[in-house]
Amino acid sequence: MTAPATGTPRPARTTPTTRHRVVVLALDGVIPFELGIPQRIFGRARTADHELLYEVVTASVRPPGPVRTDADFAILVENGPECLADADTVVVPASYELGPVYEEGRLTADLAAALAHIKPGTRLISICTGGYVLAAAGYLDGRTATTHWSSAEHFQRLFPRITVDPDVLFIDDGDVLTSAGVAAGLDLCLHVVRGDHGAAVANEVARRTVVPPHRDGGQAQYIQRPVPELQLATTTSARAWALGHLHEPIQLRDMADQESMSVRTFTRRFREEAGVSPGQWLAQQRVERARHLLESSDLSVDQVARDAGFGTAQSMRAHLQAALGVTPTAYRRTFREGVPAGPVR
Question: CA torsion angle for 79, 33, 3, 162 (degrees, to 10)?
């Protein structure tokens, strides 16, 4: 889903008594749905004792007051840009009134002054075309980033120092994270909660939001093709079957047989629907299974490797190192030893 891979998991950054502060920057022309995503996801993340893990506030680039949206209503923002100075994470949702940010790749004076409040080391997140703001501010220079697929070519031309990947739902580049359009903001925020506090917390938020905790594939599957191919069959049954047999060796032929397709046809259809190859998808699912078992069980690393379908601990170690940047033992230690005392930047 991500490119590069999801990055090194961050230790949980907060305690119930020191909540991680998320500041959402509301620009004129903001899309209300995307503005509400951080509150919906971070604002619902809780410990097992129902303590809130994040504090979510909304800020304007101007003094407190009304901010236009792209709908037929404005919103009253009660915080000015000064509160960005206290942020542990800043989220920039999309806006349809970015002006010179979108047209010329430069910040307005008000926006530049607002962003100047952000302290070094603050985690930065963009949703959809909110990435233009991070790019114009220079935060994405030399990095890989994404945005809505319909803006990807323009984004790349405007910011040549950025490597744009138009096919993924989000990209985690450590302290700077970017997402594709609209609902991909949900995917990214859930990913951040998962990295901060583990799969159990993120899954509970996803259940309450009635969205999948982890979506397969990238936004390539949503791009309209000039001549869409008529598909009379899908690969859904094969994926469901594979999830029930992850602990077993699974060959491409086995998955194709579930759909009564040739391997060639199945591989093409699978990539069209999931955005990745069957082999890449299987590896992703096995990594997710291993993460869940490492977090939630006392199984040995060898047993986790077998149950997740890696066969050996050495194979699982290589896959987790490639996908997450840590060993199985280090990952388990991060999510089984509790929350560190105080925010980690």
Answer: -60
Structure letter (DSSP) for residue 271: H
Cβ–Cβ < 8 Å for 148, 166:
no
Find the helix or strand (DSSP H, E) in which 65 lies.
Answer: strand 65-68
Residue-wise over 120-130: b if at least 16 C-beta within 10 A, else e? eebbbbbbbbb
What whole-number distance in Å separates Cα of residue 328 and Cα of residue 37?
31
Query: Parallel, antiparallel, or unpaired for β 54-60 and 20-26?
Result: parallel
- For 37-78, how does the pLDDT look when each residue is reduced to its tens digit (9 = 90+)? 999 999 999 998 899 999 999 999 999 999 999 999 999 999
Report the amino acid identity of residue 3.
A
The per-residue pLDDT of the chain, averaged, comes to 87
| Distance between CA atoms of residues 271 and 100, nearest Å | 37
The amino acid at 81:
P
Q: Using an 8 Å Cβ cutoff, are 179 and 172 in contact?
A: no
CA distance linking residue 55 with residue 201, whole number of Å:
16
Strand 163-164 to 170-172 pairing: unpaired
Quote the CA–CA distance of 57 and 45 in Å, as a whole number: 15
List the structure tokens of 191: 């990913």
Judge residue 241's burial from the number of C-beta atoms within 10 Å of its C-beta, 0-12 exposed, 13-18 middle, 19 or more buried: middle
3-state helix, strand, coil in the chain (%, to 5): 45, 15, 40
Residue with tokens 């806006």: 95
Q: Say if CB 87 and CB 23 are below 8 A apart.
A: yes
pTM: 0.70
Residue 111, both tokens: 């926006």
Return the SS3 of 244.
helix
d(CA 174, CA 178): 10
